[in-house]
Amino acid sequence: MTATIELVSKDACRYCRYAKELLWSHGVEFKETNLSTLYGSKQDMLAHLTELGTGSRTVPQVFLDGEFLGGYTAFARKVRSGELALPCRDPRTRRPPWWPTQSS
User: Is 70 inside any structural domain?
Assistant: First the structure.
């Protein structure tokens, strides 16, 4: 069974972008919940973050199989130290979806 990574993010958040780039660089598929597209107000976004029960009101928030791993800094530290082995699928997918492909 493959582990599920979920990233709670919002637009114009550089640490959300860093978290996505870290996941892409390891070829990891993840589910993103973008609060900017789901909610129109900051109040609604904060209510969603409160419902997650992590105690954090900031983004990104990274989850592995429903377990809260932390924000970007804690998540990146766990990955880089080897404490967390990310479930990489295919090494050829180690690029963000927007990355240009090479033509033959």
Answer: yes
Distance CA 2, CA 89 (A): 9
pTM for the predicted model, two decimal places: 0.79
CA dist., res. 45 & res. 61, Å (int):
13
Residues 2, 16: Cα–Cα separation, whole Å: 23
SS3 91: helix
What pLDDT, in 10s, does the model give residues 60-83? Answer: 999 999 999 999 999 999 988 989
In sequence order, the β-bridge partners of residue 7 are 32, 62
Q: Which two tokens stand for residue 33?
A: 């919940």
| Cβ contact 78:26 at 8 Å | no
Domain residue limits at 63: 5-93
CATH number of residue 37's parent domain = 3.40.30.10
103 located within any domain: no
